[in-house]
Write the structure tokens for this entry.
Amino acid sequence: MLRYRLLGPSGLRVSELCLGTMSFGEQWGFGADEATSHAVLDAYAEAGGNFLDTANKYHGGETEEIVGSWLRGNRDRTVLATKYTLAMDHEDPNTAGNHRKNMIRSVEDSLRRMNTDYIDVLWVHAWDDYTPMSETLRGLDDLVRSGKVLYVGISDTPAWVVSAANTMAELRGWASFVGLQIEYSLLQRTPERELLPMAEHYGLSVLGWGPLGAGVLTGKYTRGGDNDSLRAKSNESRGRTSDKAIEIAKAVDAVADELGVTSAKVALAWVRSKGYGYIPIVGARKVEQITDTLGAVDVELEAAHIEKLDAVSAVELGFPGDFLRSDGVRDLVRGECRTRIDGRKAGR
């Protein structure tokens, strides 16, 4: 059974795995129909899952409708999260962005599609550099005060923007972000440069989307796969099937074989190993897929496994990260006796 964690600095209890619903619906030419989607939702709920992640954009609103039809009888036990920002009508400039007009229209439409009076967590789907953050934050705070939204989070946004936003919200007494949603996996570790240290500083939960690297970390391309067809898929996989990505995937396979579990479980266990606040977003188009990934919570990676996976997938932090972590600079900043100082955070 799944256990629960507090979402960021709030008291909201959410499952240690979040169920992403982008694969629910058929309007985009892929995905599960309503009956299959409901079967996946049932399997997740039966395992103790209570945290659903959707978006108004997914399948043109069809996904929210599928989730809404399942929610009848399940609403109070479900932590329902959706998003707004992305264009719903590409011919109307005001159906996109983080301004008040799109915010209010999007929330009202989501409430109607999901047949609910409130949204537990509303995510800003992506940074909109045309809209002042003060406008977005005040609008979100108004929604929280109205009771239509309980908590707010932010997705796919630079660290400096999130940091400035939460500082502004705190100073003005507005609702601040409790979670950060980003792509994070063994194939995408660049958030470790700025985003993850920022999230740790503010106590934000980190919901990692794409934790399986679009399937690459499941063994899909490394366990008897065809290298020619593999390379042909590289463009549509945004480089996820590069030689380096395949090397990482093979390391995941090796750890999985050693533990006697699937590669997907190891990839998810690695994300979870990063700390209490890390919650992978898992998706499924079939019941057997969600059943497998739910088992990741029972996989405990040993230190040697984590070290091996960290090493093969390491990224350069760049400036100032690598500069500030060098021994010479740390000696200058903290003094040469720094190894005898017990810092506030382990490993620092």
Notes: Residues 243-259 form the longest helix (17 residues). The radius of gyration is 21 Å. The beta strands are 4-6, 13-15, 18-20, 51-53, 79-84, 119-124, 149-155, 177-183, 205-209, 278-282. Residues 319-348 form one domain.
